[in-house]
Amino acid sequence: MVRSLWSAATGMIAQQTNVDTIAHNLSNVNTTGYKAEVAEFKSLLYQTLQTRTTTANGANKPISAQVGLGTRNSSITSIFTEGPFLESRSDSAFAIDGEGFFAVRTGRGEIQYTRNGNFTWAIGNNNTLNLTTSDGYPVLDTNGRAISIPGNYKTSEITITTDGQICYPDANNNPQPLGMTIGLFQFQNPAGLEKVGDSLYRVTTASGQAINEATTNIAITRSGIVQGYLEGSNVQVVDEMVNLIVAQRAYEMNSKAIQASDDMMGQANQLRS
């Protein structure tokens, strides 16, 4: 087996994954609440050619002879830095100022989490108004219940405080809390969340259980909610283009290494005794 061929082949496969990740980031540059992803790599096993090496005089050398066998993708990590706030004309658009996540209940009854606060008020049963995602998933409050208000309220007059309380104006046009607060949750390791699509994340053992900002006793920096804004993607297009050039050059160099190994094998086959 020619080690150089297989090592270069693993490099091409790894850089293809890198390019796929960069392309995915660029395709989501305008996705609300999207978090950029970074492909990380690790070296494969090493093959020991000599465990004990000596000089010409027979003295032991401190370094053995080992050859690496290539590389592979180790993980694709999401970077949870905060994206820019983009103004929205929607009264049910909310951006999170901090490290929190909104909680929603999917159609299967599973609780998932998102940074995408592009919500809407939908008419529910018994003539109520329910705060939902664009897919119709109910948004949960601090007690894990769907947020529902009377159907005779005007959605344009509903306001949200920075701590997530839902308010409606009284007879004197002064906003009054309705006794419901939009839930915000944090994670000890948000990078460990499982991505399920539609800007939603699922809890895993690596992420740890969700920390309810309203009820936790853990010392955390609580997040705030900004009404009338959405959190944009944190993808930096310039950085991604630079990373794309680097990945393309690395892919090209691995291809040249395969070509050089093939040329060497061809020359060896043409040797005559």
Please render the helix and strand layout as text.
Elements: H1 3-27, E1 37-43, E2 46-50, E3 65-68, E4 71-78, E5 85-87, E6 94-97, E7 102-105, E8 111-114, E9 120-123, E10 128-132, E11 148-150, E12 159-160, E13 165-169, E14 175-181, E15 185-186, E16 194-197, E17 200-202, E18 211-212, E19 224-227, E20 229-231, H2 237-269
Antiparallel strand pairs: 1-4, 2-3, 5-20, 6-19, 7-8, 8-17, 9-10, 10-11, 12-13, 13-14, 15-18, 16-17
Descriptive terms for the model:
273 residues, alpha+beta, 2 domains, three-stranded antiparallel beta sheet, 21% helix, 30% strand
- Major beta-sheet overview: 4 strands, antiparallel
- Order of SSEs: HEEEEEEEEEEEEEEEEEEEEH
Strand order of the largest sheet: 7-8-17-16
Low-confidence stretches: none
Rg, nearest Å: 27 Å
Class by alpha and beta content: alpha+beta
- Write down how many β-strands occur, each being a DSSP E stretch of 2 or more residues: 20
Total domain units: 2
Rounded mean pLDDT score: 91
Number of helices: 2
* Terminal residue distance: 23 Å
Strand content: 25-35%
Shape: elongated
Helical amount among residues, as a percent range? 10-25%
Task: Please give a structural write-up.
A hairpin with a 5-residue loop joins strand 7 and strand 8 (111-114). The strands form 8 sheets. The chain has a 4-stranded antiparallel β-sheet, with no helix packed on it. It has a 3-stranded antiparallel β-sheet with strand order 9-10-11, with no helix packed on it. The protein has a 3-stranded antiparallel β-sheet with strand order 12-13-14, with no helix packed on it. The protein is built from 2 helices and 20 strands. Helix content is 21%, strand content 30%. It has helices spanning 3-27, 237-269, and strands at residues 37-43, 46-50, 65-68, 71-78, 85-87, 94-97, 102-105, 111-114, 120-123, 128-132, 148-150, 159-160, 165-169, 175-181, 185-186, 194-197, 200-202, 211-212, 224-227, 229-231. The protein has 2 domains: 3-80 and 235-269, no CATH class; 85-231, no CATH class. The model has no long low-confidence stretch (mean pLDDT 91). By secondary structure, it is an alpha+beta fold. Helix 1 (3-27) packs antiparallel against helix 2 (237-269). The longest helix is centred in the last third of the chain and has 33 residues, at 237-269.
